[in-house]
TrEMBL record, chain A:
GO terms for molecular function: NADH dehydrogenase (ubiquinone) activity; NADH dehydrogenase activity; ubiquinone binding. The keyword Transmembrane applies. The chain crosses the membrane at residues 6-23, 35-53, 92-114, 121-138, 144-162, 174-194, 223-245, 257-276, 288-309, 316-335, 347-365, 385-403, 423-443, 464-484. InterPro entries: NADH_Q_OxRdtase_chainM/4, NADH_UbQ_OxRdtase, ND/Mrp_TM. This is NADH:ubiquinone oxidoreductase subunit M. Residues 138-426 form the NADH:quinone oxidoreductase/Mrp antiporter transmembrane domain. Belongs to the complex I subunit 4 family. It comes from Cytobacillus solani. It comes from the Bacteria. GO terms for biological process: ATP synthesis coupled electron transport; electron transport coupled proton transport.
UniProtKB/TrEMBL annotation, chain B:
HAMAP family: NDH1_NuoK. It catalyses: a quinone + NADH + 5 H(+)(in) = a quinol + NAD(+) + 4 H(+)(out). It comes from Cytobacillus solani. This is NADH-quinone oxidoreductase subunit K. Its main location: membrane. Signal peptide: none annotated. GO terms for molecular function: NADH dehydrogenase (quinone) (non-electrogenic) activity; quinone binding. InterPro entries: NADH_UbQ_OxRdtase_chain4L/K (IPR001133), NUOK/Mnh_C1-like (IPR039428). Its EC number is 7.1.1.-. One of its GO terms (cellular component) is plasma membrane.
UniProtKB/TrEMBL annotation, chain C:
It comes from Cytobacillus solani. The lineage of its organism: Bacteria, Bacillati, Bacillota, Bacilli, Bacillales. One of its GO terms (biological process) is ATP synthesis coupled electron transport. GO terms for cellular component: plasma membrane. Belongs to the complex I subunit 2 family. GO terms for molecular function: NADH dehydrogenase (quinone) (non-electrogenic) activity; NADH dehydrogenase (ubiquinone) activity; quinone binding. This is NADH-quinone oxidoreductase subunit N.
TrEMBL record, chain E:
The keyword Transmembrane applies. The lineage of its organism: Bacteria, Bacillati, Bacillota, Bacilli, Bacillales. It is a multi-pass membrane protein. It comes from Cytobacillus solani. Signal peptide: none annotated. It catalyses: a quinone + NADH + 5 H(+)(in) = a quinol + NAD(+) + 4 H(+)(out). This is NADH-quinone oxidoreductase subunit J. The chain crosses the membrane at residues 6-27, 34-51, 57-79, 91-112, 140-162. GO terms for cellular component: plasma membrane. Keywords: Cell membrane, Membrane, NAD, Quinone, Transmembrane, Transmembrane helix, Ubiquinone.
Length: 502, 104, 505, 619, 173
C-alpha cells in the first residue's frame, strides 16, 4: 500500500460522479449501474486495508499528510494555525470505513427503488459516500468537520427530493438540527484550534493531556467543550431530547437513503463521542460518565416505550434506533473496556441491522405501498423470504445471541453493571421492551391473517437477495465470531483506556 | 485674545447639529429633510473651523476640511433634489411618508 | 509649490486611479459625442477594459514598500493594494453584470452615464482604500456615495428605483453628517487630518476628557460608516434600497461599496482609535475598550439580518438581508481584533465578493426573464437550467458557509480570529454560528424552490448573456477553488503583503 | 468425548441445509432431519457411556476479548450434561420421526424440520455449555426455536399471540438471568461454572450477593420453566404443532430452567434464602398449575398445566436440596410427558379437535395410542412401578427431609390433583360413548406410534435407575465426586411412599367415579365460582393485562404525549419565536425613510450614553 | 470670558442661527422654513468670520445662502409646494428621538463644556484666502481633484435624473 491510498479510497466515488456527468439523464439502468459500480472501489480498497491489517501490517503506513491551509504568517507561527490535509485510520475508523463502504454498496443496490431523476440521485449519493468515508478517515478535526458537513448537503437533498409525503419538512428538520449540531461542533473545534494552534487529533490529545495545570484551557472550559461536543454529536446520535428530526427522516426518506442514514450517519455521532469526546477529554468524560449512562438508559427506555405505540413500521424502527443508540451511551457511560467495546460493537451492529431492516421495509413498501402495521399482516404468506429476513432482522435487533446485536448489548450492559448496577438494572428493562415492540411490529406484519391478496407480488428478486443476505451474513458473523471486530479494536481501546487511566 | 472660548463654538455646533438631526428625522417634506441635513453638515463645519483656530495645533487644515465638506454638501443637495424631482414625476408627492412602497 | 515639485512625486503609484479617471473622462466624452444610434454597450466594454487595465497596473505595483504622495493624501501600502484588488475584481464583475442589464423600460439613454458613474464610484472606493488623510478619505467616501445615489435612481421611470435612491440619499446624508461630525472632533483633538500624525499624537494622550471626546467621536464615525456597510444600527435602508435599485447597482452596493466601507472602518479604527490609550501612555487602547460595543453591534446585525430574512419573498430583498448578515459576520472580524484581522477580512470579503456577485448575476438573469422578483420564480430552475441551478446552489452554499466553498474557509477564519484572542469571544461566535444555522432556513428555501418545486411553466428558456456567463463561471470557479484550496489566496496574501506590516509606517 | 461438540452440529447442519435447500426437498426433508438427529443421539449415547468411565471433560477456546478479560466458548461433559444430552437427543430424534407422520401434507414441511433442527442444536448446545455466558446464548436460542415453532402456524392469530407471549415472557426471565450472571461475573471475574463454584466455596462472594444473583438466575429459570408467575406462556404455547409441544414444552426446553438451577446447584445451596425461594415457587407452582389443570377442556392445555405443575415439582426438589430428585424427575418427566404429548398429538391427528368434551370412546378406535396414553398417565400419576412414582417419591422425601413440611403437604395435594386430572383426561378421551361425528377416526401410522412406544417403554423403566429398592444408581453417579450436590440418595420415612401411592390412587379413583363410571355428577363444580376461577386460570392473564400491559401502554402514551407536546413543542416554540422575531423585524421595516435614520441615531445615542455612563470618564 | 465686541457678536450670531434652526422646525410653510434657514446659514458665515475664516465665510454665503437655497427653492417650485399639511408623526418616535438627541447632546456637552487647549496665536486671519489656496493646491491637490470628479458626477447625475424627457417619448409614440 502506498501513496494516497486513503485519499483514493475516500474520493473514489467522485469518479462515479464524473462518469455520471456524461450519461444521459434518461438512461435509467446505465445510471444505476454506474452508481453501483462507483461504490465498489471504496469497498475493495477498504476491505483490502482491513485484511492487510488483520494479517499484521501496520495502519500507520496509510497515513497521509499534505499542507493545506496556513493561517497567519508561516514564518512567524511555524506549524501553528496550519490545517493539514491529514488522513489516517486506526482500528476503529477502519471498521467504520469498511462498514460505510459495505453499506454504501448495498444501499446503491437498494437504490433501485428510486423512481425519478436517477442521475441527480446518484451524484448526491456518491457525494454523500465521499463525505462519510472522509469523516472516518480524517485525522484532523477540521477536516473531519468538513467531511461531516459534506454529508449534510447531499442528505438534505436526498431526503427532500426522493422521500415520501412530508419529505421537505423532514429535510428541513434534518438540516436545522444537524446544522445546529454541527454549528456547536464547529465552535468546539475552533476553540480547540484557536487555543492550541492545531486540529490534529493526536496532537490535541497530547496537548490537553499534558495540560494538567490548565494553561491551555481551564477545567471549566474543557468541561464546557466536552458538553458542547456531546450536544453536537448528541444531535446526530441522537440523544433524547434531540431526536425528533431523526424520526421524521427515517419515516420520510427513501429506504436506500435511510439505510445509509441509520447505518452510517447516526454512527458518526457515536464515533465522534468516542474518538473526540473520550479521546480528547478523557478526564472530563469520566466526570460525565454517570450523566451519559443515565442519558443512555433514558434513550433506551424512551425509544422503546415510544416504539411500542407506533403504527407505522418505519416509526417503530426510528424509535428503535433511538433506543439502540441508548445502548451505545450506556456502554460509553460505563467507561470500562467492556462498555466501550460494547458501544463500538453496537455502533457497527446497529448500522448493519438498521440497514437490513430498512432495506426490507423498502422491499415490501415497494410492493405494497404501505408500511402501516395494521394494514399489513400475513406477509409471510405472500413473501415468505422477505418475512423471514424481517424476522431475522428483528431478532438481531432485539439481541438474539448468535447475532451482532447480542454481543454489543451484552458487553455494554456488562460494562455498566460493573459501574452502576442499579442503573443498569433499570436499563435492562429495555431489553424486554425491545423484544416487545419489535415482535409486536414484526409479527404484526409477517404473521397473522393476511389483509390482502398477495397475488402477483413476487418475493425477493435476485438483486434484492444480495443486500439482505450480505447484511444478515455479517450480522451473524459478528455475532458468532466477534473477533472480526475485537481484534482490530484492541489498539484503539488501549489508547482510550490509557487516556481514561483505567 | 479671544473672549469667546472654544467650548461655546462647539456647543453652538452641537445645538445646530441636533436641530438639523431632529429636522431631518421628523420633517415630512423631503426638501426640508435635505435642508436639515445641510444644517447638520454646517454644524460640523463650525466645529472644524473652531478647531482650526482653537485646536491643539491651530492650522488652516480645518478650514480646508470645511471647504471640502461644503463642496460635498452642495453636490449632495443637487443630487438629492434631482432624485426628488424624478420621484415627484412618478409619484406626485414630496411627502416623505408616502415614499414607503418598498418595505418589510 | 511649483510644477517641478509637483512632478517630483512618484505619481506612478496612482496609475490605477489615473486609468479609471481617464476612462471616466473618455467615456463621458464619447457618450457626449457619439451618435445616438451607437450601442452604448461598447462603452461598457471599454469601461471593463479600463478596470482590467487598472487591475493589471495594480498588480504591477505590488511588492514595494509603502509609498506616499503629498503628506499621505495618497498612500499605497500593502493594505491598500490588497483591498483595492478586491474592489477592482468586484467592480469588473459588476461591470459584466451591468453590461447585461436590460431593464424593461430601457436604459439606453443613460447607459453611458450608467457606466461611468460606476467608474466614479469605483474611483471613490479606491481612494478610500489608499489614503492616509482624513480629508481624502472623506472625499473618496462621498464620491462613492453620491455616485451610488445616482446609480440607485437611474431607472428614473421606475418608481421603485426613485424611492430607493431617495431613501439612499436621505439616509446617506444623515450618515455623512454623523461621520463628519465625529471626524471634526478627531481633527480638533489632534490638530491634523493625517492619520499617522494623529496616531502619533494620540498615543501620548493622557487627558481623560480628550479621550472621552475621542470615544464619542469614535462612535459617531463608526455608526456613520456602518451605513456604508449596512450593519446595525444603520442597516435599515439596505433592504429597501437593494430592492428598488437596478440589480447591478444592488450588486455593487452589496459588494464593492460594502468592501470600501470596511476598508475605511478598519483603517480609521486601527490607525487612530487603536492608538488611543484609555488611561495614559501604554494603557489599554480605546478600541479594545469599545470592542464589546462593536461586538454587540455585530451580534445585533447578524441576528437582525438572518432572522428578518426568514420572512422575505422578494429575492433581492432576501439577499439584502443576507448581505446585512454577512456584514455582521465581517463585523465580528473587526470586533475580535485578532492578529489575523487583515487576512480574515480580506479573505472573507474576497469570498463574499465572488459568492454574492455570482448570486446576483443569476438573480438578474431570472428576474429579468420572468419580470418578477418573487422567490417563487426560481421554482424548477433545476429542470429548466440545471447548470444555473447548480451554480446558484454553489453560491448559496458558500453564503451559508458549507465546506467545500470559500464561504466556509472565510467563516473558519473568522471563528479562529474571534477565538484566538484573549479573552475569546465565545458569545459572539456562538451567536454567529446560531444565526448561520438560522440562515440555512432561507438559503435552503431558495434551494427548495430550485430543486424540489416544479416550474410554473417549463417554456421559458434561458439564454445566458456572455457577460453573465463569465461572471457566473468565474464566481463558481473562485468560490470552489478558494474553498478547496484556500492556500492559493492565503499564500498570495502572505507572500505579497508581508503581514500588512507597513500599515502603520 | 473430546468431540462432544460435534453433537449439536448435526442438527445445526440440518437447520442450515433445510432452510436453504429444503424447499426443493419437500417432505424428503424429514429424512435429513431424522438422520441427523439420530446421529446426535447415537453420539450422545456414546458420550454418556464414555462418561461412566472417564472423568468430566472440558475444552474451551477464546470467543471474545474484552481488554484483559477473555470470554471463552467450549463444551463440558459432566454427569448432568451427559445425561441431558441423551435425553434431549433421544426425544428430539423421536419427535423428528414422529413429526414425519404428524406434519405430513404441510406446505412448510421443510421449514418445520429446519426449525426443529435449530431448536435441537440450541438445546444440545445449552446442555454442553461450560459457562454461564454460553448457557445464556443457547438459552436464548432455544427460546428462539420455541418461538418459531409455536408460531409455526403463523397465519393463525392465536399462534402469533402465543409465540409473541412465549418470547416475551421468557425474555423477562432471561433478563433476570442476564443480570444475575453479569453481577456474578463482576464478583467472580468469570462465567465459568467451576470458577464460580470455587469462588462461592472460598467465600469470595458476599452472601447477599450470592442470594441476589441466585434469585436473579432463578428468575431466568422461572421464565423458561413456566413457573409462577411467568407460567402463562406455556399453556398458550400449545398453539404450536403437537410434536413441538412434546419436544420443547414438555421434555427439553422447559426443563432447561430446572437444568440451569441444577447446574448452578452449588451456588443455590450457598444461600438458604435462594433455596427457599426456589422451593416455595416450585411447590406453589405445582399445586397452582395442578388446580388449573383440573378443569381445562383442551387436551393439550391439560397437559401443559400438568407440565407446569411437574416442573414445579422439580423446582421444589431442587429447592429442597434434592438435586438428584430434581434431575431424576426431569428425566422421567421428559419421557412420560413427551409420550403423553405425542399420544395426544396422535389423538388430535385422528379426531382433528383438541376439545376433550368432544371426544370419548376412543379406546376402541385408537388401539395403539390408547394404551400408550394410559402408560403415560399412570407414570405421571405416580402409580407405583411406573417411573413417575419413583421420581415423585424422591421429591417428596427431599422436601420432607429438608424440613419443608408445608411444602411437602402441598406437593402431596398436587400429586392427588395430578392423578385426578390426568385420569379425568384419560377417561374423557378414551372411555364412554364414541361421538357420532367421530366416525372416520383412524389410528396413526407407525412412523408416529413407534416413537411413542419407545417413550412408553422408557416411561416405565426409566424409574428403575434410581429406586430405593434396587439402588440409587443414578443419584450416586450424578453426585459422584461432587459433594456440593448433596447425597445421591436422601433417606426419608417410608410412610411417604405410602402416602404418595394412596393419594395417586385416590385421585384415579375419584376421576374414575366421575368421568368413567359417572356415579358422581360431572358438574360437581360446574357452576361454582371456584370452577370459573380455575377455568379462567385464576385470571392471571387478565391480571397481567390489567397491570403490566396497561401500565406499559400508559407509560408509552405518556411518553408519546411528552414527545409530541414537550420535545416537539419546545422545538416548535423556538422556531416559532425565531420566525416571530423575523415577522416583527420585517414589520418594523415600515418603509419610512426617517424611521431608518431614527433607529440609527437612537442606536448611536444609546451607545454614546452607555459609553459615557460606563466609560468612567464622567467625574 | 470678558464682555467684548467679539462676545456680543458671537452671542447674537449664535442666537440668530439657533432661532433660525428652531423656526425651521416649527414653521409650517416650506418656503418659510427655507428662509428661516437662510438666516442660520448667514449667521454661520458670521461665526466663520469670528473664527478667522473669511474665505470660508464668503463661500458659506455663496454656497449655502446662495446656491443651495436657490436649488431648494427650485425644487420646491418644481414640485408641489402648496403641500403644507404636516401629518402627525408617531409621537412615540418623536419622543424617543427627542430623548436620544437629549442624551446625545448631554454626552457631548459634558465633553466640551470646558474643553480648552489654551490660546495659541494663529495667523489664520492673515491672507486667509491665500493660505487656503496654497494648501489646496499643494498639500490637498489630490482631494481637490477628486472633488472635481465628485462634482462632475453630481452634475451628470443631477442632469440625468431631473431631465424631463417625457415629451420626447410622447412625440415618438
Amino acid at each position: 500500500m502506498n501513496f494516497a491510498y486513503l485519499s483514493i479510497l475516500v474520493f473514489s466515488p467522485l469518479l462515479g460522479i464524473i462518469a455520471l456527468l456524461f450519461v444521459p439523464k434518461a438512461k435509467e439502468s446505465v445510471i444505476k449501474t454506474v452508481g453501483f459500480l462507483a461504490t465498489l472501489p471504496a469497498l475493495v480498497l477498504s476491505l483490502m486495508a482491513y485484511f492487510q491489517y488483520r494479517s499484521g501490517s501496520s495502519l500507520e503506513r496509510l497515513d497521509e499528510m499534505v499542507n493545506w491551509i496556513q493561517f497567519g504568517n508561516p514564518n512567524r507561527l511555524g506549524e501553528l494555525f496550519s490545517i493539514k490535509y491529514e488522513l489516517g485510520v486506526d482500528g476503529f475508523s477502519l471498521i467504520m470505513l469498511v462498514l460505510t463502504a459495505i453499506l454504501s454498496t448495498l444501499a446503491a443496490i437498494a437504490s433501485m427503488y428510486i423512481k425519478k431523476e436517477w442521475k441527480g440521485y446518484f451524484m448526491l449519493f456518491l457525494l454523500l459516500e465521499v463525505g462519510m468515508l472522509g469523516v472516518f478517515a480524517a485525522e484532523n478535526l477540521i477536516l473531519f468537520f468538513i467531511f461531516f458537513e459534506i454529508t449534510l448537503i447531499p442528505t438534505f437533498f436526498l431526503i427532500g427530493k426522493w422521500g415520501y409525503f412530508e419529505k421537505e419538512k423532514a429535510a428541513f428538520s434534518f438540516l436545522i438540527y444537524n446544522g445546529l449540531g454541527s454549528a456547536v461542533l464547529l465552535i468546539v473545534i475552533m476553540v480547540l484550534f484557536a487555543r492550541t494552534g492545531t486540529s490534529n487529533i493526536e496532537a490535541l490529545t497530547s496537548i490537553l493531556a499534558a495540560d494538567s495545570s490548565s494553561l491551555v484551557l481551564s477545567e471549566g472550559g474543557k468541561m464546557g467543550l466536552l458538553i458542547a461536543m456531546l450536544i453536537a454529536f448528541g444531535v446526530k446520535l441522537p440523544i433524547f431530547p434531540l431526536h425528533s428530526w431523526m424520526v421524521r427522516v427515517h419515516v420520510q426518506a427513501s429506504p436506500s437513503v435511510v439505510m445509509l442514514h441509520a447505518g452510517i450517519l447516526l454512527k458518526i455521532g457515536a464515533y465522534g463521542i468516542i474518538r473526540f469526546g473520550m479521546g480528547i477529554f478523557p478526564e472530563q468524560f469520566q466526570d460525565l460518565a454517570v450523566l451519559i449512562a443515565v442519558l443512555g438508559v433514558v434513550n433506551l427506555l424512551y425509544g422503546a416505550f415510544l416504539a411500542l405505540v407506533q403504527t407505522d413500521f418505519k416509526m417503530v424502527l426510528a424509535y428503535s434506533s433511538i433506543s439502540h443508540m441508548g445502548i451505545v451511551l450506556i456502554g460509553l457511560g460505563a467507561l470500562n473496556e467492556a462498555g466501550i467495546q460494547g458501544a463500538i460493537f453496537q455502533v457497527v451492529s446497529h448500522g448493519l441491522i438498521a440497514a437490513l431492516l430498512f432495506f426490507l421495509v423498502g422491499v415490501f413498501y415497494e410492493r405494497l405501498q404501505t408500511s402501516n402495521i395494521p394494514n399489513l399482516g400475513g406477509l409471510a404468506k405472500g413473501m415468505p423470504i422477505t418475512a423471514g429476513f424481517l424476522l431475522a432482522g428483528a431478532m438481531a435487533s432485539l439481541g438474539m445471541p448468535g447475532m451482532s446485536g447480542f454481543v454489543s448489548e451484552f458487553m455494554a450492559f456488562l460494562g455498566l453493571f460493573r459501574e452502576m448496577p442499579v442503573l443498569a438494572a433499570v436499563g435492562a428493562l429495555g431489553i424486554i421492551l425491545t423484544a416487545v415492540y419489535l415482535l409486536r411490529a414484526v409479527l404484526g406484519i409477517t404473521y397473522g391473517k393476511a389483509h390482502r391478496e398477495f397475488a402477483g407480488i413476487t418475493d425477493l428478486r435476485k438483486a434484492e437477495w444480495v443486500p439482505a443476505l450480505v447484511l444478515l451474513g455479517i450480522i451473524v458473523l459478528i455475532g458468532v465470531y466477534p473477533s472480526v471486530l475485537t481484534e482490530p479494536l484492541t489498539s484503539t481501546l488501549e489508547t482510550i483506556m490509557l487516556g481514561i487511566g483505567g | 485674545m479671544s473672549s469667546v472660548p472654544l467650548s461655546a463654538y462647539l456647543a453652538l455646533g452641537l445645538i445646530l447639529f441636533c436641530i438639523g438631526l431632529y429636522g431631518a428625522l421628523t420633517k415630512r417634506n423631503i426638501i426640508i429633510v435635505l435642508i436639515s441635513i445641510e444644517l447638520m453638515l454646517n454644524a460640523a463645519n463650525i466645529n472644524l473651523v473652531a478647531f482650526s483656530k482653537f485646536g491643539v495645533m491651530p492650522s488652516i487644515t480645518g478650514q480646508i476640511f470645511a471647504l471640502f465638506v461644503m463642496a460635498v454638501a452642495a453636490a449632495e443637495v443637487a443630487v438629492g433634489v434631482a432624485i426628488l424631482i424624478a420621484l415627484y414625476r412618478n409619484r406626485n408627492t414630496v411627502n416623505i411618508d408616502e415614499v414607503n412602497t418598498l418595505k418589510h | 509649490m511649483d510644477l517641478e515639485t509637483l512632478l517630483s512625486f512618484k505619481w506612478s503609484i496612482m496609475t490605477p486611479e489615473f486609468i479609471i479617471l481617464g476612462v471616466i473622462t473618455l467615456l463621458s466624452l464619447l457618450d457626449l459625442f457619439m451618435a445616438k444610434s451607437v450601442n452604448r454597450k461598447l462603452l461598457g466594454w471599454l469601461g471593463l477594459a479600463g478596470i482590467l487595465g487598472a487591475l493589471i497596473s495594480l498588480l504591477s505595483l505590488m511588492g514595494n514598500g509603502p509609498e506616499t504622495i503629498l503628506y499621505d493624501t495618497f498612500r499605497l501600502d500593502s493594505f491598500a493594494i490588497a483591498f483595492k484588488l478586491l474592489l477592482l475584481i468586484g467592480a469588473a464583475l459588476v461591470f459584466l453584470i451591468a453590461i447585461s442589464y436590460e431593464p424593461k423600460e430601457g436604459l439606453n439613454e443613460y447607459r453611458g452615464e450608467f457606466y461611468y458613474l460606476f467608474l466614479a464610484a469605483l474611483l471613490g472606493a479606491m481612494m478610500m482604500s489608499s489614503s492616509g488623510d482624513l480629508i481624502t478619505l472623506f472625499i473618496g467616501l462621498e464620491l462613492l456615495s453620491i455616485s451610488s445615489y445616482i446609480l440607485a435612481g437611474i431607472r428614473k421611470k421606475h418608481s421603485g428605483s426613485n424611492e430607493s435612491a431617495m431613501k439612499y440619499v436621505v439616509n446617506g446624508g444623515i450618515s455623512t453628517s454623523i461621520t463628519i461630525f465625529g471626524m471634526s472632533y478627531v481633527y480638533g483633538l489632534t490638530g491634523t487630518t493625517n492619520l499617522l500624525d494623529m496616531a502619533r499624537h494620540v498615543i501620548t494622550l493622557a487627558d481623560s476628557q480628550h479621550i472621552y471626546l475621542l470615544g464619542l467621536a469614535f462612535f459617531m464615525i463608526f455608526v456613520g460608516l456602518s451605513f456604508k456597510v449596512a450593519t446595525a444600527p444603520f442597516h435599515m435602508w439596505a433592504p429597501d434600497v437593494y430592492q428598488g435599485a437596478p440589480t447591478p447597482v444592488t450588486a455593487f452596493l452589496s459588494v464593492v461599496s460594502k468592501t470600501a466601507g470596511f476598508i475605511l472602518i478598519v483603517r480609521i479604527l486601527m490607525v487612530i482609535f487603536y492608538n488611543i490609550p484609555t488611561e495614559g501612555l501604554g494603557s489599554m487602547p480605546l478600541l479594545i475598550k469599545v470592542q464589546d460595543y462593536i461586538a454587540f453591534l455585530a451580534a445585533a446585525t447578524m441576528i437582525i439580518g438572518n432572522v428578518v430574512a426568514l420572512r422575505q419573498k422578494n429575492i433581492k430583498r432576501l439577499f439584502a438581508y443576507s448581505s446585512i448578515a454577512q456584514a455582521g459576520y465581517l463585523l465580528v472580524v473587526v470586533a475580535s481584533m485578532s492578529a489575523f484581522l487583515f487576512d480574515t477580512l480580506w479573505f472573507y470579503l474576497g469570498a463574499y465578493l465572488f459568492m454574492n456577485l455570482g448570486a446576483f448575476a443569476i438573480i438578474q438573469l431570472i428576474t429579468q426573464k420572468t419580470g418578477s422578483e418573487d422567490i417563487a420564480e426560481f421554482a424548477g430552475l433545476y429542470r429548466k437550467a440545471p447548470i444555473l441551478a447548480i451554480a446558484m446552489a454553489v453560491f448559496i452554499l458558500s453564503l451559508a458557509g458549507i465546506p467545500g466553498t470559500a464561504g466556509f474557509i472565510g467563516k473558519l477564519n473568522i471563528f479562529m480570529g474571534a477565538l484566538v484572542v484573549e479573552p475569546a469571544h465565545y458569545v459572539l461566535v456562538s451567536i454567529m454560528i446560531a444565526t448561520t444555522v438560522v440562515s440555512y432556513f432561507y438559503y435552503f428555501g431558495v434551494m427548495v424552490q430550485m430543486f424540489f418545486r416544479p416550474a410554473a411553466n417549463d417554456e421559458v428558456k434561458f439564454k445566458l448573456p456572455a457577460g453573465l456567463g463569465v461572471v457566473i463561471g468565474v464566481c463558481v470557479f473562485a468560490t470552489i477553488l478558494f474553498g478547496v484550496a484556500p492556500n492559493i489566496a492565503l499564500d498570495f496574501l502572505q507572500g505579497n503583503f508581508n503581514q500588512f506590516s507597513d500599515f502603520f509606517q | 468425548m473430546e468431540n462432544a461438540w460435534i453433537i449439536p452440529l448435526f442438527p445445526l447442519l440440518s437447520f442450515l441445509f433445510l432452510i436453504f435447500f429444503g424447499k426443493r426437498l419437500k417432505e424428503a426433508s424429514a429424512y435429513i432431519g431424522i438422520l441427523l438427529s439420530l446421529a446426535s443421539f447415537v453420539y450422545s449415547l456414546l458420550v454418556l457411556f464414555e462418561r461412566f468411565t472417564s472423568p468430566t471433560h472440558k475444552a474451551e477456546s477464546v470467543w471474545l476479548t474484552i481488554g484483559d478479560v477473555q470470554l471463552t466458548a467450549g463444551f463440558e461433559v459432566n454427569q448432568l450434561n451427559a445425561l441431558m444430552l441423551v435425553i434431549v437427543s433421544l426425544v428430539s430424534f423421536l419427535v423428528h420421526t414422529y413429526s414425519k407422520g404428524y406434519m405430513h401434507g404441510d406446505e412448510r414441511f421443510h421449514v418445520y424440520y429446519a426449525y426443529l433442527g435449530l431448536f435441537t442444536f440450541a438445546m444440545l448446545g445449552l446442555v454442553l455449555s461450560p459457562n454461564l455466558l454460553q448457557t445464556y446464548i443457547f438459552w436464548e436460542l432455544v427460546g428462539l426455536g420455541s418461538f418459531l415453532l409455536i408460531g409455526f402456524y403463523f397465519y393463525k392469530e392465536e399462534a402469533k399471540k402465543a409465540a409473541k407471549k412465549a418470547f416475551i415472557m421468557t425474555r423477562i426471565g432471561d433478563v433476570g438471568l442476564l443480570i444475575g450472571m453479569i453481577l456474578l461475573f463482576w464478583q467472580v471475574g468469570s462465567f465459568e461454572y467451576d470458577e464460580i463454584f470455587a469462588a462461592v466455596e472460598a467465600g469470595a462472594v458476599s452472601s447477599t450477593m450470592i442470594t441476589l444473583t441466585a434469585i436473579l438466575i432463578f428468575i431466568g429459570a422461572v421464565g423458561k420453566s413456566g413457573q409462577f408467575p411467568l407460567h402463562t406462556w406455556l399453556p398458550d404455547a400449545m398453539e404450536g404443532p403437537t410434536p413441538v409441544s412434546a419436544l420443547i414444552h414438555a421434555a427439553t426446553m422447559v426443563a432447561a430452567g430446572v437444568y440451569l438451577v441444577a447446574s448452578l446447584f452449588p451456588l443455590f445451596t450457598a444461600s438458604e434464602t435462594a433455596l427457599m425461594t426456589v422451593a416455595i415457587i416450585g411447590a406453589f407452582t405445582a399445586i397452582f398449575a395442578a388446580s388449573i389443570g383440573l378443569v381445562q377442556k383442551d387436551i393439550k392445555r391439560v397437559l401443559a398445566y400438568s407440565t407446569v405443575s411437574q416442573l414445579g415439582y422439580m423446582m421444589l426438589a431442587l429447592g429442597s436440596a434434592g438435586y438428584v430428585a430434581g434431575v431424576f424427575h426431569l428425566m422421567t418427566h421428559a419421557f412420560f410427558k413427551a409420550l403423553l404429548f405425542l399420544a395426544a398429538g396422535s389423538v388430535i391427528h385422528a379426531v382433528h379437535t383438541q376439545d376433550i368434551e368432544k371426544m370419548g370412546g376412543l379406546w376402541k378406535k385408537l388401539r395403539v395410542t390408547g394404551p400408550l396414553f394410559l402408560i403415560g398417565t399412570l407414570a405421571i400419576s405416580g402409580v407405583p412401578l411406573f417411573s413417575g412414582f419413583f421420581s415423585k417419591d424422591e421429591i417428596l422425601i427431599a422436601a420432607w427431609a429438608h424440613g419443608n413440611t408445608v411444602l411437602f403437604w402441598l406437593a402431596v395435594i398436587a400429586a392427588f390433583f395430578t392423578a385426578f386430572y390426568m385420569f379425568r383426561l384419560f377417561f374423557m378421551v378414551f372411555s364412554g360413548e364414541s361421538r357420532s361425528d367421530m366416525k372416520h377416526v383412524k389410528e396413526s401410522p407407525s412412523v408416529m406410534t413407534v416413537p411413542m412406544m419407545v417413550l412408553a417403554i422408557l416411561a416405565v423403566v426409566a424409574g428403575y435407575v434410581n429406586t430405593p429398592w434396587f439402588g440409587t444408581f443414578l443419584g450416586d453417579w450424578l453426585t459422584e465426586g461432587n459433594p456440593a450436590l448433596g447425597h445421591g440418595h436422601i433417606e426419608g420415612p417410608s410412610w411417604i411412599m405410602i402416602v404418595a401411592t394412596v393419594v395417586s390412587l385416590l385421585g384415579i379413583f375419584l376421576a374414575w367415579l366421575i368421568y368413567s363410571k359417572r356415579s358422581l355428577s360431572r358438574d360437581w363444580l360446574g357452576a361454582s365460582t371456584l370452577y370459573t376461577i380455575l377455568y379462567n386460570k385464576y385470571y392471571i392473564d387478565e391480571l397481567y393485562e390489567l397491570t403490566v400491559l396497561k401500565v406499559t401502554k400508559g407509560l408509552s402514551l405518556i411518553l408519546r404525549f411528552i414527545e409530541t407536546f414537550i420535545v416537539e413543542g419546545i422545538v416548535k416554540g423556538v422556531s416559532g419565536a425565531v420566525s416571530g422575531l423575523g415577522h416583527l423585524g420585517s414589520r418594523f421595516q415600515s418603509g419610512q425613510i426617517q424611521r431608518y435614520g431614527a433607529v440609527a441615531f437612537v442606536g448611536l445615542a444609546i451607545l454614546i450614553v452607555v459609553f459615557a455612563v460606563t466609560g468612567g470618564y464622567l467625574k | 470670558m470678558t464682555l467684548s465686541g467679539e462676545f456680543f457678536a458671537f452671542i447674537s450670531l449664535a442666537l440668530v442661527a439657533v432661532v433660525g434652526g428652531v423656526l425651521l422646525l416649527n414653521l409650517t410653510k416650506v418656503v418659510h422654513m427655507v428662509l428661516a434657514l437662510v438666516f442660520t446659514f448667514v449667521s454661520i458665515a458670521g461665526i466663520f468670520i469670528l473664527l478667522s475664516a473669511e474665505f470660508l465665510a464668503a463661500v458659506q454665503i455663496l454656497i449655502y445662502s446662495g446656491a443651495i437655497t436657490i436649488i431648494m427653492l427650485f425644487g420646491i417650485m418644481l414640485t408641489r409646494h402648496d403641500d403644507t399639511k404636516e401629518p402627525k408623526t408617531g409621537l412615540l418616535r418623536k419622543l424617543l428621538l427627542f430623548l436620544g438627541i437629549l442624551g446625545f447632546a448631554f454626552a457631548f456637552y459634558i465633553g466640551i463644556y470646558n474643553l480648552d487647549f489654551g490660546e495659541v496665536s494663529t495667523t489664520l486671519h492673515e491672507n486667509n484666502t491665500e493660505q487656503i489656496g496654497i494648501a489646496l493646491y499643494s498639500k490637498y491637490i489630490i482631494p481637490f481633484e477628486l472633488t472635481s470628479v465628485l462634482l462632475l458626477a453630481a452634475l451628470v447625475g443631477a442632469i440625468v435624473l431631473s431631465k424631463n424627457d417625457q415629451e420626447k417619448e410622447a412625440k415618438k409614440e
